[in-house]
Amino acid sequence: MSSLTALTLAEARAGLERKEFSARELTEAFLAAMAKARPLNLFITETPERALQMAQACDERRRRGAPLPLDGIPIAVKDLFCTKGILTTAASRILEGFTPSYESTVTEKLWQSGAVLLGKTNCDEFAMGSSTTTSHFGPTLSAWRRAGDNRPLVAGGSSGGSAAAIAAHAALGAIGTDTGGSIRQPASFCGVVGIKPSYGRCSRWGVVAFASSLDHPGPLAKTVRDAAILLSAMAGHDPKDSTSAPLPVADFEAALTGEIKGLKIGIPAEYRVPDMPAEIDALWQSGIAWLSEAGAEAVEISLPMTRYALPAYYIIAPAEASSNLARYDGVRFGLRVEGGSVDEMYELTRAAGFGAEVRRRVLIGTYVLSAGYYEAYYLKAQRVRALVARDFAKAFEKVDLILTPTAPSPAFAVGEKSDDPIAMYLNDVFTVTADLAGLPAISVPAGLSAEGLPLGLQLIGRAFAEETVFRAAEVLEAAAGFHHAPAFLASGEP
Q1: Which of the residues 182, 198, 203, 244 is marked catalytic?
Q2: 371-376 CB contacts, 8 Å cutoff, 24+ apart
Q3: Which long-range contacts (CB under 8 A, 24 or more apart) does 146-152 make?
């Protein structure tokens, strides 16, 4: 059974179609892998009974000759997506005991496609973090270790539980959310593929909100093909989400032709940041060479507003968070700490329910939205955001895609940056621009650091040009030939 967990999603789908194994057998193999991986703290809530019920239904459909596109594929769901009848916490104490009576649109689409729910994965509290260490339920640990160093490493964040679950072969695929890099950065740290689609490609309805104009649901998987299969099932217009794009959904898997001859790949000068590690730059140069050898043309471009993107993001995102999180007050759902008055109940509930990073961002957001500072900070940040988008629009007049590193470093040790919020925020330096502009961006594992840890390369495309992004990403994936596996898979020890 353990060999089943080594399959890619596409391979498992083919095996199910050929009846080499049943959906129940596949699900049981992943439930066993989840149990083995519990020391990594990948899941907040495991749903084995639900998974087996769903797998049984998949097998029955297949026996009737009426299988669904993802029938029998076991996946993990970031605990930011509301799941009907299943605990949803956003990794926060303030949502203690919250069991939604409704299903998010994205997960509903996946279940309608036949996917099987393994459980809800750990994440940074309310998706606020770059390491999955701010969770009320404790940090998620990476399945990877530095060579000769057994200190536990972060899985990246905020979708670290989803990325680490795939790396540990505890899920065939997973879904997460990306607000400033929260799918792509953990994908890079864990050696898996993660794509943030265009803003509006996947519905946000039923997703616990962090920053509404920046939140992007998307898939993580072992391969580019697997990610394409998942995104085809997740995407689509949703009238319940006013920001959902009323556009048809392509068959993203069909876009994987392997042909990129003639594509122009932009190489932005501004992404050569000060003190960039030599190994990150060397990998970037390798990526340029791989795409050029496949027939693409590398073109030097400029994205001059990049230097202002990170500070603009860390004004806009906390501002939206302070508004979105105002609903968590102990009145209607979740944690309530009684006080002598309604105001005191609010204060005590929010103080006890929110962790340090969430409180920090709510305070920052409230400050930049306050009288006297709104124009100086928030409006100025929004103007910078518009200029970042303009930079991309100009660049895409000359190029088809943009290639950059995904993250400025490999995974770091748990606790290594926890005392320095600025150092933690700098993990998003290569990823926030695509969120600010709402563009599709994918991280592909492309090599190992000197310490034996995964490093990723990022491709950014025009809005709603996911087909082109996937096509080039698969070529990059094939050229990189990343077939490394974490030691955890052999040892079973974190």
Answers
A1: 182
A2: none
A3: 146/451, 146/452, 146/453, 147/451, 147/452, 149/451, 151/413, 151/414, 152/413, 152/414, 152/494
pLDDT at 279 exceeding the cut of 50: yes
Q: Where does 38-138 show beta strands of DSSP type E?
A: 43-46, 74-78, 116-121
Which residue among 135, 142, 158, 244 is the active-site one? 158
- In the residue annotation, 182 being an active-site residue is answered as yes
Percent of the chain with pLDDT over 70: 99
> What is the helix (H) or strand (E) element at residue 324, kind and residue range?
helix 306-324
The radius of gyration of the chain's CA atoms, rounded to the nearest angstrom, is: 21
pLDDT at 408 over 60: yes
Average pLDDT rounded to a whole number, residues 330-342: 94
Average pLDDT taken over every residue of the chain: 96
Which of 492, 406, 418, 420 lies closest to 453, judged by CA? 406
> In terms of CATH architecture, what is 2-264+411-421+439-491?
Alpha-Beta Complex (3.90)
The token pair at 295 is 């027939």
From the list 381, 16, 399, the residue with the least C-alpha distance to 229 is 16
Residue 493 has pLDDT above 90, yes or no: no
Whether 22 sits among the annotated catalytic residues: the reply is no
Q: What is the pTM of this model?
A: 0.97
Edge-to-edge strand list for the sheet holding 216-221:
43-46, 116-121, 74-78, 173-178, 216-221, 193-196, 441-448, 454-461, 401-405, 264-268, 297-301
Q: With bands split at pLDDT 50, 70 and 90, how would you rate the model's confidence at 491?
A: confident
Say what the pLDDT of residue 1 is: 46
Q: Which two tokens stand for residue 418?
A: 């926890």
* pLDDT number for residue 2: 59
Quickly tell me which residue has 């992004």 as its tokens: 469
Give yes or no for a contact between 175 and 397, defined as CB atoms under 8 angstroms apart. no
DSSP per position, 202-268: S--TTBPPS-TTT-EEEEEESSHHHHHHHHHHH----TT-TTS---PPP-GGGG--S--TT-EEEEE
Taking 50 as the threshold, does the pLDDT of residue 43 lie above it?
yes
135 an active-site residue? no
pLDDT of residue 426: 79
Spatial separation of the C-alpha atoms in residues 455 and 187, rounded to whole Å:
9
CA gap 184, 160 in Å, rounded = 10
What confidence tens digit (pLDDT) does each residue in 199-244 have?
999 999 999 999 999 999 999 999 999 999 999 999 999 999 999 9
What dihedral angle (degrees, nearest 10) is formed by the CA atoms of 366, 368, 371, 372?
150
The total number of residues shown for the chain amounts to: 494
The residue from 78, 109, 222, 417 that is catalytic is 78
Question: Is the separation of the CB atoms in 154 and 132 below 8 Å?
Answer: yes
| Residue range 396-415: mean pLDDT, rounded | 96
DSSP 482: -
The residues spanned by each domain of the chain are 2-264+411-421+439-491
